[in-house]
Specification:
heterodimer, A: about 180 residues, 2 domains, about 0% strand, globular, B: mainly alpha
């Protein structure tokens, strides 16, 4: 395992060790302070419930209906006409799913990796895509919902444009490095 | 725009299900998703309490402020509307660090804390402020150094080299993040006029 994965393994134990110790040495009443801060966790989590449910219901209905497959099939003639590798079609459900739902896209990515093999082009592309970009709509619903923002202004456009660039960059770099 | 996307997802889903003789699926998915919303919130409750508690200790000890001071020159350029010593910088930086390391469940509490701080400086409380949108853009496109979950999936699937996608992931997220910063900057400029 590389250094970065080791850091990821150690970082949480380190923070749990270092922050309370440092604070205690600086005369902070660590336990009481922890409880005070933790109280907000409950309140915030309750506040985001309506936003979460609204998003999840729409995403759930859309995804489970089989609409993703139909969209993929509609794209097929276009891909062939453009002379693109039809293998790339496999990635469309993941590309649509990625900004919508974290667990959903992990499911699609896992299925693609198992179906095509982890070391195939699609397998590597699915891995890269899943590893990059966050679920824009989850962040949007939860973050804005938690403070009662209802008008999102141009936030959705910025988030989705960034996702689109992430998708194109993933396809480009995976084709170059492994292609 | 979010209203339209929400409506489209529902309508396209229901029409597809109806045309493919799958209409029962709609009922089941909708109810299941509603339950899932509560599950996610409860899971989040635990992790959020843990991290917000820990962060409160770090705050009281002055650690967050020092971290914010070290990172702020770069971050401040991206958030020009925030005050120089805004208390939002601390959680923003913690959130980005957690994202960087692929610690999704630690990132969310910091992100929500940052939103609360940003909301205090927001002149129109029901509308997203430019700083909030910048934060959202950074958040959804943040560079990931350790995509831990997907490495696990690749391992289980029997990959010869499960970590080989770290490089491509860093590149793709770097592009997305750069794009997010630029696009956000352009939108912010256009909206001001």
């Amino acid at each position: 395992m590389s250094i970065v994965t080791e850091i990821a393994r150690w970082i949480i134990p380190f923070l749990l060790f270092f922050i309370p110790l440092y604070a205690y040495l600086h005369k902070v009443p660590v336990y009481e302070t922890f409880v005070e801060g933790a109280e907000n966790g409950f309140k915030t989590a309750v506040k985001i419930i309506p936003f979460l449910i609204g998003m999840l219901v729409a995403i759930g209905v859309f995804v489970d209906s089989g609409a993703l497959e139909i969209i993929t099939n509609l794209c097929r003639p276009f891909f062939i006409k453009m002379g693109w590798n039809p293998d790339l079609l496999g990635i469309i459900p993941l590309a649509i799913m990625r900004p919508l739902s974290g667990s959903g896209s992990l499911g699609v990515a896992t299925q693609l990796i198992l179906q095509y093999g982890p070391d195939s082009f699609i397998g590597r592309l699915a891995s890269t895509l899943q590893g990059s970009t966050d679920t824009t709509f989850f962040v949007l619903a939860v973050y804005f919902g938690s403070v009662g923002i209802r008008k999102h202004s141009y936030a959705v456009k910025v988030g989705l444009l960034a996702d689109a660039v992430g998708l194109i960059a993933s396809i480009w770099i995976v084709s170059r490095v492994f292609g | 725009m979010v209203n339209l996307i929400w409506l489209l997802m529902l309508l396209v889903g229901i029409i597809t299900a109806a045309l493919t003789g799958n209409i029962d699926q709609v009922t089941e998915s909708a109810l299941k998703a509603a339950e899932l919303g509560i599950e996610v919130a409860i899971q989040l409750m635990g992790v959020m309490s843990l991290w917000l508690g820990l962060m409160h200790i770090a705050e009281k000890a002055g650690l967050i402020q020092s971290l914010a001071k070290i990172c702020s020159p770069a971050i401040r350029k991206i958030f020009p509307s925030l005050k120089k010593d805004s208390p939002a910088f601390g959680p923003i930086i913690m959130n980005l660090c957690a994202n960087l390391l692929g610690l999704g469940n630690a990132a969310t509490p910091f992100g929500l804390k940052a939103m609360q701080e940003l909301q205090k400086e927001n002149p129109v409380p029901d509308t997203a402020s430019p700083a909030m949108i910048t934060f959202l853009a950074l958040n959804t496109s943040c560079i990931t150094i350790v995509p831990a979950t997907i490495i696990g999936v690749r391992m289980k699937a029997g990959s010869v080299n499960p970590t080989e996608i770290i490089g491509t992931t860093i590149f793709a997220t770097a592009c997305a993040m750069t794009a997010a910063i630029i696009v956000d900057y352009l939108f912010r400029k256009r909206n001001r006029v």
